[in-house]
């Protein structure tokens, strides 16, 4: 028995030694060529390993490659990676399930060349024929056969180029994704810088299998921007239960939203596709718009010259999707003005935003208004109308902090227009 045990230990030691030594015996040139061929065939793109490729077997099967390039001309995507590393658990050798320990992309530079309008339309038509653009089914199918402990991007840069628009650069990209199992939590966190503004976001789903089986799953989303894209919008948090509908849309019921210091209850529908669409209903007991009307904080004297050359705030972050929204608030505060029974709706379609204040009850009476603008403009121009069926002049002047030698009711039906989002500039127009 002792000799048998010693023999087993010897065989095991020999196997371990063979696995440990084998990677060093494989030609680096052959590894580069074979990895490039296999991955190019699997992805339909051209992948080349131009630098050293190192293999290891302990504690995991791992590969580290330097100077990797990718080209997918059909999609207009090219990428360069300073280093790509990945590792899988040894158990993947005898299991029918791939256990990915880590995939890390270091200092990637990814360039997207935007196609001309006719080419983009052709691609969109093919996309409609082949799928909805929703990544969840493919992700769930992959996780049925695999587990991903970590996918990370470090010091990444994304560049979008177009013949019509100036180059857009997203820099300092940091991303971490974890999807251990289709029955476990899926989490994604990311940060990036666009121009002078930095963003941070995180997203979690309690279990992807619940979604696949048309059952509710807990979802949370947080986002922060510095400086804020608009006054009062420094942070955004949302949570609730999401359900995948039979038509491929996602529905949230009983959710909660915090935007800045404002709190809402949320019911929403998200329809994925070439151009995503959101339908959102928000309700609030109390809504304070005063922070959203504040001007930007004053800068120091040494920073003043730089502020003069800064681009004006705009709404272009809304240009990539369509949406329908309604907001109802029992009470609203705007500076010294208080209102009740507020009804607001907005529709965003192909970059055109139309908003309507259906009802606003203040001490002096009721108001209604509508406004429209093009959110794709560098400095949006707003046009709309304001109407009332009888404002008490005395109460209205008191709200404005003025005294007027008039009494009675005031009826308004007037148009208005202004440009930009800066409070001081609007008051000067």
TrEMBL record:
Pfam families: AsmA (PF05170). One of its GO terms (cellular component) is plasma membrane. Residues 7-114 form the AsmA domain. InterPro entries: AsmA, AsmA-related. Keywords: Plasmid. GO terms for biological process: regulation of protein targeting to membrane. This is AsmA domain-containing protein. The lineage of its organism: Bacteria, Pseudomonadati, Pseudomonadota, Alphaproteobacteria, Hyphomicrobiales.
């Amino acid at each position: 028995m002792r000799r048998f045990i010693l023999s087993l230990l010897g065989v095991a030691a020999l196997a371990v030694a063979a696995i440990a030594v084998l990677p060093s015996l494989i030609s680096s040139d052959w590894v580069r060529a074979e990895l490039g061929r296999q991955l190019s065939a699997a992805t339909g793109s051209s992948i080349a390993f131009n630098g050293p490729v190192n293999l290891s077997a302990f504690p995991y099967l791992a590969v580290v490659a330097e100077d990797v390039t990718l080209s997918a001309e059909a999609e207009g995507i090219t990428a360069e990676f300073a280093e790509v590393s990945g590792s899988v658990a040894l158990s993947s050798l005898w299991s029918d399930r791939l256990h990915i320990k880590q995939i890390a992309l270091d200092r990637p530079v990814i360039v997207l060349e935007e196609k001309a309008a006719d080419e983009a339309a052709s691609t969109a038509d093919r996309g409609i024929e082949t799928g909805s653009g929703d990544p969840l089914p493919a992700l769930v199918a992959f996780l049925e056969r695999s587990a991903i402990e970590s996918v990370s991007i470090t010091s990444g840069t994304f560049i979008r180029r177009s013949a019509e628009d100036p180059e857009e650069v997203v820099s300092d990209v940091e991303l971490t994704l974890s999807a251990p199992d289709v029955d476990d939590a899926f989490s994604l966190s990311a940060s990036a810088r666009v121009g002078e503004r930095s963003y941070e976001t995180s997203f979690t789903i309690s279990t992807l299998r619940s979604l696949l089986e048309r059952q509710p799953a807990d979802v949370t989303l947080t986002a922060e921007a510095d400086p804020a894209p608009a006054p009062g919008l420094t942070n955004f948090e949302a949570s609730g239960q999401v359900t995948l509908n039979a038509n491929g849309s996602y529905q949230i019921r009983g959710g909660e939203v915090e935007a800045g210091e404002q709190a809402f209850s949320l019911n929403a529908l998200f329809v994925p596709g070439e151009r995503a669409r959101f339908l959102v209903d928000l309700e609030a007991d109390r809504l304070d718009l005063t922070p959203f009307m504040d001007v930007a904080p004053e800068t120091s004297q040494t920073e003043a010259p730089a502020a003069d050359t800064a681009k004006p705030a705009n709404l272009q972050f809304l240009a990539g999707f369509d949406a329908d929204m309604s907001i109802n608030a029992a009470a609203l505060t705007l500076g010294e003005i208080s209102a009740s029974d507020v009804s607001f709706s907005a529709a965003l379609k192909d970059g055109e935003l139309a908003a309507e204040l259906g009802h606003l009850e203040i001490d002096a009476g009721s108001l209604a208004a509508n406004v429209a603008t093009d959110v794709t403009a560098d400095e949006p121009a707003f046009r709309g109308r304001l109407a009332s069926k009888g404002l008490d002049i005395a109460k209205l002047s008191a709200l404005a902090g003025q005294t007027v030698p008039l009494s009675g009711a005031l009826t308004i039906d007037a148009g208005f227009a202004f440009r930009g989002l800066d409070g001081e500039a609007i008051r000067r127009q």
